[in-house]
């Protein structure tokens, strides 16, 4: 059982290129390799293309996942999705065969959070709460730490909610503009202009908490 994943640097049909040169002979060779190798390919969602160059004008579907027949028969409902291009000219691919639950996310505390005075005050107030029960000291300590952990988790959620919304809005906007640029050259120029203006503004806003921590 095997899986081939990567940039094959070739397409299978003319519609897998846009404003990019299509070579029918190379496509035939690639299709013959898939056909005679008894290789299967899953349909891809999320985007029509996986590679962009030329300032976001040229598009191609170069990245794909090919599997053997045994793999395909075992996971016929597997899904393949292309994510938005954010830090590369290639789209990341998510290939999902089955879902698994690994349990709750473990609690984490970052020392950089101590840069926020309101959190330090919140922790001190949580530790100052008296436990008048007759339980053993270690039970009281465990209960107090659990209470402080809950306070920290609530603070992190409230502190990051607004920032996460801004980040998600920016990602959604970039994704929408990326999809729009795949279908229209004119809209690509329009999107690039607004991405430049909005991106600078949003980056400055999102970097303010980081700058405060680094001071």
UniProtKB/TrEMBL annotation:
Listed InterPro entries: Endo/exonu/phosph_ase_sf
State the SUPFAM superfamilies in the record.
DNase I-like
Q: This chain belongs to which protein, by name?
A: Reverse transcriptase
């Amino acid at each position: 059982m095997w899986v081939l994943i990567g940039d094959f640097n070739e397409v299978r049909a003319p519609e897998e290129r846009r404003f990019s040169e299509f070579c029918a002979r190379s496509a035939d060779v690639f299709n013959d390799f898939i056909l005679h190798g008894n290789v299967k390919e899953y349909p891809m969602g999320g985007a029509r293309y996986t590679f962009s160059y030329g300032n976001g004008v040229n598009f191609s579907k170069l990245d794909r996942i090919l599997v053997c027949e045994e793999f395909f028969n075992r996971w016929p409902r597997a899904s393949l999705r292309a994510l938005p291009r954010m830090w590369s000219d290639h789209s990341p691919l998510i290939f999902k065969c089955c879902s698994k639950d690994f349990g709750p996310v473990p609690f984490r505390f970052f020392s950089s959070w101590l840069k926020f005075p309101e959190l330090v005050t919140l922790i001190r107030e949580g530790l100052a709460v008296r436990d008048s029960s007759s339980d053993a000291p270690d039970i009281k300590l465990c209960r107090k730490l659990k209470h402080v952990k809950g306070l920290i988790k609530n603070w992190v959620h409230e502190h990051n909610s607004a920032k996460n919304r801004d980040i998600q809005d920016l990602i959604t906007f970039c994704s929408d503009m990326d999809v729009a640029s795949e279908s229209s050259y004119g809209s690509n120029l329009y999107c690039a202009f607004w991405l430049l203006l909005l991106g600078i503004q949003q980056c400055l806003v999102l970097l303010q908490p980081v700058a405060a921590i680094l001071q």
